[in-house]
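lol ok so funny story. i was supposed to be doing the assay writeup but got distracted and ended up predicting the structure for this chain instead. priorities right. anyway since i did it might as well share w the group, maybe its usefull for someone
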Amino acid sequence: MSTPVKKIDTPFGEYAPRVASHDELERAAAVMGDAVEAIARVNHDRWAAERIFQGWRYGEERDDARKLHPDLVPYELLSEAEKRIDVEGAKAIIAELIRLGILRQ
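and the output, tada:
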């Protein structure tokens, strides 16, 4: 069962993003094991490549006007809090693949 979220009205109808529940996320981690970290790393690199293409550079503090961001570093150098964001995103992807029957538990 997914986590309830607020709905919004759009010109295309009502929209309520689907967010996996804590149980779904933990099940995804159990099913995929080490793959969760690999997916998190790939997602971080994709994000970083997109920012670099847009002209962003590394900076010790985030500065949107100057396009500086402290997370434009290899995944291994991210803080544990930042890694956790990428890991949770990876779990959400895996949970959705399980829900759709693409991956089996």
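Helices lie at 22-32, 35-53, 80-99. The first strand starts at residue 8 and ends at 10.
back to the writeup now i swear
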